[in-house]
Amino acid sequence: MKKGRIFRTLLQPIWKAWYEYVSRKDSQGEIKFLNYGFHSNENVNLSPEDETERYPLQLYHHIASAIDISDKAILEVGCGRGGGASYISRYFKPKSYVAVDISKQAIQYCKKNHTTAGLDFVQGDAQNLPFNVNSFDIVLNVESSHCYPNLNVFFNEVYKALKPEGYFLYTDFRNQQNLSQVEETIKQSPFEIISVEEITENVAKALEIDNERRVNLIKRLVPGLFFKPVAAFAATKGSVTYKGFATKWNTYYFYVLKK
């Protein structure tokens, strides 16, 4: 566990720098999602402007559909480019939606490109959330926690931010060496486990179907010298990351937790 925390602490500035780079290079606002996506047999009806990023969007749809979130005060921690926050605000109609990210550039992008009523973006650290105790009905965290140095601290911050009986919708991935650490952290946390779902196959299928779009985006936005490492980061077909999901060396999980 300690080695894993040290490794994530060392990588955090690299991840942050990457997100800042994407925000600067994507001047046209093409990239609204940074997650790996989700394939589903459910017919999710989307407006034409959302169709391009169907698979990353469907991950948010799957998470948000786990409980009734209409007319609820929602916090998303690690919102990235804000596409998920925008989608849930527009389609699920929560009472309010506050989205937090550590990247200043990402938050600036979100404020400029996502202007739905009741949606607000705030720069902040997942391990030191800038909110009062008992502020939100629901907290979401989508494919972001693997960047955090200390998962225990993050879970405690979420617990404090939630109202009594509030829900934590938490999804991310770990490799087989680190998965048990996450499971133990959740078991030792003060949350009640309502449900657990493995969605690795859904993610791998989405990556396969959405591969051409991802590759074309990387070619447009990234210098050729950096194509391979960025393609691996984005889990394009043939990359180590993609193979990790295809073989289930990487496990993608989804928890519904309750305070």
Question: Can you give a write-up of this model?
Answer:
The chain has one domain (2-26, 44-199, 252-258): 3-Layer(aba) Sandwich (Rossmann fold). With 259 residues, it is of the alpha/beta class. It is built from 11 helices and 7 strands. It is globular. Strands 3-2-1-4-5-7-6 form a 7-stranded mixed β-sheet, with helices on both faces. It starts with a helix and ends with a strand.
What labels would you give this structure?
44% helix; alpha/beta; 259 residues; 11 helices; 7 strands; 7-stranded mixed β-sheet; Rossmann fold; disordered N terminus
What is this structure, in a nutshell?
The protein has helices spanning about 1-25, 50, 55-65, 85-90, 105-115, 150-160, 180-190, 200-210, 210-220, 225-235, 240-245; strands spanning about 75, 95-100, 120-125, 135-140, 160-175, 190-200, 250-259. Helix content is about 45%, strand content about 20%.
List the helices and strands and how they pair.
Elements: H1 2-25, H2 48-51, H3 54-64, E1 73-77, H4 83-92, E2 96-101, H5 104-113, E3 119-123, E4 136-142, H6 151-161, E5 162-175, H7 179-188, E6 192-198, H8 200-209, H9 211-221, H10 227-233, H11 240-246, E7 250-258
Parallel strand pairs: 1-2, 1-4, 2-3, 4-5
Antiparallel strand pairs: 5-7, 6-7
Helix pairs in contact: 1-5, 3-4
Into which percentage range does the β-strand content fall?
A: 15-25%
CATH class: Alpha Beta
The name of the CATH superfamily reads Vaccinia Virus protein VP39
End-to-end span in angstroms? Answer: 25 Å
Number of helices: 11
Shape: globular
CATH topology tier name: Rossmann fold
Residue-averaged pLDDT, rounded? Answer: 89
Largest sheet: 7 strands, mixed
Helix content: 40-55%
Number of strands: 7
Main-sheet strand order equals: 3-2-1-4-5-7-6
